[in-house]
Amino acid sequence: MKITYPYMGNSHIAIKNLLERLGNEVVVPPRPSKKTLSYGTQHAPEFACLPFKILLGTYIEGLEMGADTIISTGGVGPCRAGLYTTLQERILRSLGYEFDFITLEPPSRYLNALYKNIKKIINRPMTLKEFWHVIRFVWEQLKLFDMAERKSFEIRPLEVNQGETSKVYRECVDIIAEARTIEELKEIKNEVIKKMDSIDRRKDFEPVKVGLVGEIYVVLEPAANLEIEETLGELGVYVERSMFFTHYTVSNAIMDLFHLAGERNVKKAARPFFNEMCGGHGRESVGNAVLYAKRGFDGVIQLSPFTCIPEIVAKSVLPAVAKKYDISVLSLSLDEQTGKAGLRTRLEAFVDLLFKKKQKKEGRFA
Amino acid sequence: MKIGIPRALSYYTYYPMWKTFFQILGLEVVESDATTKKIMDDGVKEAVTDACSPIKLYHGHVMNLMDKVECIFVPRLVSINREATFCPKFLGLPDMIQYTINNLPPLLSPRIDLKKGKGELLKICYRVGSKFTKNPFLIYKAYRNAIQELKNYAASFLKGAIPPLKLDSSQTQKGDIALAVLGYPYMLYDPYFSLNLIKKLIDLGAKVYTLEMLPEKAKLKQADKLKKTLFWTYSNSIIRTAYHFFENKRVDGVIHITAFGCGPDFIVDKLMELEAKEIQMPFLTVILDEQTGEEGLKTRLEAFVDMLRLRRIRHENNISLHG
Ligand code: SF4
Ligand code: SF4
């Protein structure tokens, strides 16, 4: 059995570790590229959302590289992501691929199926203790990736030498990827902090603050959002993101298991504008926009795949949020035609506006 | 008091029920006008750009009512059973309308969620009704009559009629080529948006079956064919109806009507297309939007029906040759 899986941010490294330690041979999916996308668009229906197309392309690449098993996560709706695998499996089969498709469904509805599927991917004898150890290691590794990324958001707008943060950040990712034990991770954490902190920074400059909200895949996968965080950072923007990988799995799977409503404050913040769970992260987008506004951020950027249902609902109420809290909102919808240069131009204009507004506000108080 | 009901989305499934309900409560019910270019254009202008056309159209119909009524009925349709919900845009509809269109009269937006059972509907009706009358008996009467109206409406579809298009079974069931024409009712039964698609097919000599003409029971029989139930009520109906006809082959072809920018449909359409190919059932997808041209559509439908006729002749010859 050779397993491949979806690519999302740095998680592919941790997932590789996880699967290998559970005794599997792994085909690491390549970072989504033009080629990935072109496979995806060629075989996916035209109106499929961008994440669907990228994932489909990723699977094709994985299968071409010799994988015979795909593992992915399902979902319970009401949005489409939970149904991706049903259709992707059919499309891939109609293309003549032979493989096993393992869909991990969230535990609350399909606990048995989840258990069976997890057993399928444990392919060496191990005790429960060892199993938990593996899980803990992977979790710590993911957390470290997220920490490094958060730090890069803080430092990038202040860097003296453009591009340095991104370079150091990538080095950090590589170091974290090499870790083999939890102890090593602890050491690496200090090393990462030291490396990032040693980047030369400007003292006389105050960045504008932007909160990034939107659909999870395009928010978390730089190849899908054309490295928007890097671009923003270089334009002098401090970016904060409402979603991180470690954050997502906790609030969705575990909270789900215990029927806890994750992120209650976010939902509450969304309430006057958005009264219904519409699947995906539409309500979170609105709720987080409100929270960013209340915290005095200068702007909010909403990222969504073209035709993304919940984000369209969110998008139609965001102008009301913007008006009520006097915060600038930019909604960007991404598809296979979105180009990096065009995106940069739009971001430049938006950031420009934020700086002007900020100056005016400060002038008023001075 | 005048209450407005937009002629879009769930209108085509539930209108007779709500109309009766409000009328018995003593309200004057005003429907928005049949779709016109202006209504469509208004919707396109106000709604968020990447919304699907039916949602834009809904915006247009709300605007058409704005100055005529004191209140607009924009229900939040969540679910009518346990297995699925409506498309997420139905779930967020009142929010979208409320925050997109300025100077609206108050919206009446009950949350309709029958996951816990059909009995919930009475509770919801009671809550809505008490806004207009203190008389519980009147509300109950309105509820009973409303349900009856809905049943009658459903029954006439089952007999082959399409009431919103004023077609009866003698018109829909007379052609020589049988077609399953599957699409959400708010696309198919809006003559402006669908460019009179059903009428065109009938004129081409087709016998037309739509979603509502197949009893729920027959649909449920097909439910197991999907590895995972879809999340959306209308979509399940469509795919199950398609599977029904794929199985009994009582139609010569299947047409799927969908709209530009529809979220759920890319899954629904592709699943049907792949299945149809496997069993060699002719299958046509028509994607409608606010710019679809009438002539182009006509040509495509003609070509499809002609092809089916030829196919049938060939088929019959084959059988007689071998038999
Ligand atoms: S949330 Fe958006 S991107 Fe995700 S499945 Fe739904 S429509 Fe697609
Ligand atoms: S089902 Fe499709 S057409 Fe209907 S509201 Fe949802 S996205 Fe729009």
Could you list some keywords that capture this structure?
heterodimer; A: 366 residues; alpha/beta; Rossmann fold; four-stranded parallel β-sheet; 16 helices; globular; B: 323 residues; 14 helices; binds iron/sulfur cluster
Summarize the structure.
The complex is a heterodimer of chains A (366) and B (323). Chain A is α/β, with parallel strands linked by helices. Chain A has helices spanning 11-21, 34-43, 50-64, 84-94, 107-120, 128-155, 164-178, 182-197, 216-220, 222-225, 228-234, 245-257, 264-270, 282-294, 309-325, 340-365, and strands at residues 2-4, 25-26, 69-73, 100-104, 208-214, 237-241, 299-305, 328-334.
- The SS-based structural class of chain B is alpha/beta
Element-by-element helix/strand order of chain A:
EHEHHEHEHHHHEHHHEHHHEHEH
Task: Look at the structure and give the mean pLDDT of chain A.
Answer: 87
Q: So what's the CATH class of the largest domain in chain A?
A: Alpha Beta
Q: How much helicity do the residues of chain A have?
A: 55-70%
Radius of gyration of chain A: 21 Å
In which range does the helix fraction of chain B lie? 40-55%
What is the fold-level CATH name, i.e. the topology of the largest domain in chain B?
Rossmann fold
**Count of domains of chain B:** 2
Bound molecules: iron/sulfur cluster
Strand residues, percent of chain A: 5-15%
CATH fold annotation of the largest domain in chain A:
Rossmann fold
Give a written overview of the molecule.
The complex is a heterodimer of chains A (366) and B (323). By secondary structure, chain A is an alpha/beta fold. Chain A folds into 2 domains: 2-128, 3-Layer(aba) Sandwich (Rossmann fold), CATH 3.40.50; 206-361, Rossmann fold, CATH 3.40.50.11900. Helix content of chain A is 58%, strand content 11%. Chain A has 16 helices and 8 strands. A 4-stranded parallel sheet of chain A has the order 2-1-3-4, sandwiched between helices. Chain A is globular and about 65 Å long. The termini of chain A are far apart. The model of chain A has no long low-confidence stretch (mean pLDDT 87). Chain B has 2 domains: 2-157, Rossmann fold; 162-322, 3-Layer(aba) Sandwich (Rossmann fold). Chain B is built from 14 helices and 10 strands. Chain B has helices at 11-24, 37-46, 53-65, 88-91, 93-100, 120-129, 136-158, 169-172, 185-188, 197-203, 216-221, 233-248, 265-278, 294-322, and strands spanning 2-5, 28-31, 71-73, 76-79, 107-108, 111-113, 177-183, 206-209, 253-259, 283-288. In chain B, the strands form 3 sheets. Chain B has a 4-stranded parallel sheet, with helices on one face. The longest helix of chain B has 29 residues, at 294-322. Chain B starts with a strand and ends with a helix. The chains are: A alpha/beta (366), B alpha/beta (323). Bound molecules: iron/sulfur cluster (SF4) (2 copies). One iron/sulfur cluster (SF4) binds at residues 52, 54-55, 87, 89, 184, 259, 262-265 of chain B.
